[in-house]
Write a structure and sequence with these properties.
- The chain is of the alpha/beta class and 433 residues long.
- It has two domains: 202 residues, Periplasmic binding protein-like II (D-Maltodextrin-Binding Protein, domain 2); 204 residues, D-Maltodextrin-Binding Protein, domain 2.
- Helix 1 runs parallel beside helix 4, helix 10 packs across helix 11 and helix 19 packs antiparallel against helix 20.
- Helix content is 45%, strand content 12%.
Amino acid sequence: MASRWLTRTGVVSAGVLLASTLAACGDGSSGTGTTTLNWYINPDNGGQQAIAQSCSEQSGGAYRIEALILPSDAAQQREQLMRRLAGNDSSIDLMSLDPVFVPETAEAGFLAPMPAELQAELSEGVVQGAVQGATWNDELVAAPFWANTQLLWYRQSVAEAAGLDMSQPVTWDQVVDAAEQQGTAIGVQGQRGESMTVWVNAMVESAGGQIIENPEARGPDIRLGLDSDAGRAAAAVMQRITEAGVAGPGIDNRDEAGTANLFQQDGAAFMVNWPFVYAQAQGAAEGGSMDPAIFEDYGWAQFPRMTPDEPSAPPLGGIDIGVSAFSENPDLAYEAVRCIVSEDNQASYMISDGNPAAAESVYDRPEVQEAYPMYDVIRTSLQEAAPRPQTAYYNEVSQGIQDRWQPVSAVTEQTPALSAEFIGQVLSGERLL
């Protein structure tokens, strides 16, 4: 709750204010007449730094982008940015934002207004899920850069042995039945972290519900949709996975990387995960740390459905580029954004770092299709993906879910109601996280 209070009131520690004051003393010049734009990025394989250098060169001396790396944890990224923005830190020009933090950043007044013509330009030809994730109060407030989604990954030989027709959509019940029949596991992310919120939200949305029913409401007025048929359906999937004995080892401590490793090591024949797992497995197979036969057996499909007749709403992730409201060079910053999210840069970034593009046209490129043979499933999934709750109170809601839906083995049909009650008390100021 403390960090929320900071972003709402603008009250920050003396150390943060001092840091922002010192940073504001610079003129943003590199000393050669070229304006330096500071871009705070999430850690990756170096792709964003390469784009920063390329765009700097293409600017013809108008600007130079300096990429500065944020912590690896998304919550820590949010806290660092929010504290500095609350202190009106003018040294931040560009930010790589997880879509879940876009509403909070916009609602607090920390994003520079995006010109209407640029809103139209940066949303044209972009997958719907990414546009929705970068929108707040019916306006595009950040530029979609890459847009992630989870797929259902499976061992083709195991699915065939279980009689699953993977050319058709499958349900969670079907996957659990197949794993139980074949004596294998399903890789899911059950740790107390953001990945838990990703899983719960995808199942609730796929069951026709919403975690928050009125996302633009303020704290105590937020209506939570967890205590619902959709919420109980999500809990039932978790119960089935554990009761059927197909959770696999260490489910309560597994994140995306742990799940990918379990699948690579033949400890699970099914998993839900982001597309990075394909490039990782390919590298492991080529490097000799993974049996190439396992990699050749990789299959992929859209995220599992909750019921046979209703399409799934896969998770939406990715990164949007925001321009700080306190940047001394917002016009140049938006010019840099144009370059960063260009189709060429999205394509090269998808290949170099394994992060799917937000622009649909990128998926038509032969080099992308060669690197990601599941490109069409990714594109379709992104069109149907549902963002996590878009609210200025996302941190409270997400942490509340993580706290009450974990460990997975303890989830029951009462969990949705208990979590809704707990989060409601947090939003009303009656309890602390």
